[in-house]
Amino acid sequence: MKPAMETAAEENTEQSQERKGCFECCIKCLGGVPYASLVATILCFSGVALFCGCGHVALAGTVAILEQHFSTNTNDHALLSEVIQLMQYVIYGIASFFFLYGIILLAEGFYTTSAVKELHGEFKTTACGRCISGMFVFLTYVLGVAWLGVFGFSAVPVFMFYNIWSTCEVIKSPQTNGTSGVEQICVDVRQYGIIPWNAFPGKICGSALENICNTNEFYMSYHLFIVACAGAGATVIALLIYMMATTYNYAVLKFKSREDCCTKF
């Protein structure tokens, strides 16, 4: 009986050690995950997807509104149509580039964590590794500044559609807003510079303007531009997080070049 009891005790001890070893291994792996880069990647993918998807559809809706109501002559908005088509192609390129760039930055974050070091053994940083990290820092800063411009540019159509929508609200309730002569309340999109001054009609007033605001094209384009602007803002925040992560990684690689690279970003 005693040997059997001792064997059972030894088996229980081995099982508890195995469970403890698995638990410690999981803790090390979770401790080495680059959470900042992971959050930034998810936020970047979401923001770029919203900006590209909603922006593409909203631009198509804007062209339809202009062609049907503000510029009946195709030659008047031919240049605008070409620019919008070019922007739609640029959107495809932006989506593809940031999909790859986000994956690369996330991989770089994993590469410079203690979890990867535990998997691949001890290693020292090299000049090539520090150079690559420095390149990511520079490129991320440039992209962050560029996306600040994109965020500001994406707010322009939101401002334009908001002005049209607020004008329609005045037309719907003129007495509440203290206005008279509804047919004299107009919106002239030529003042925004998107169509030339000789475009016809260019200006819509009164009930005709209210009918435009009630169309599905206007409603969808307005809200899609808002979502696209929010997506651009989310991408800016993601790039700011990437800036902090890549800068931290580069600092660790630079100032601990003779030690093992062990970062948490």
TrEMBL record:
A molecular function (GO) term: structural constituent of myelin sheath
Keyword presence, Plastid: no
PROSITE patterns recorded: MYELIN_PLP_1, MYELIN_PLP_2
Pfam short name (any one): Myelin_PLP
Keyword list, A-Z: Membrane, Transmembrane, Transmembrane helix
SMART domains: PLP
GO biological process terms on file: axon development; central nervous system myelination; negative regulation of serotonin uptake
The keyword Cytoplasm is assigned to this record: no
Alphabetized InterPro entries for the sequence: Myelin_PLP, Myelin_PLP_CS
Cellular localization per UniProt: Membrane
Membrane topology: Multi-pass membrane protein
GO cellular component terms, semicolon-separated: membrane raft; myelin sheath; plasma membrane
Membrane-spanning residues: 38-66, 86-111, 132-156, 224-248
Principal location listed in the UniProt entry: membrane
Similarity comment text for this entry: Belongs to the myelin proteolipid protein family.
Protein name (database record): Glycoprotein m6b
Species whose genome carries this gene: Jaculus jaculus (Lesser Egyptian jerboa)
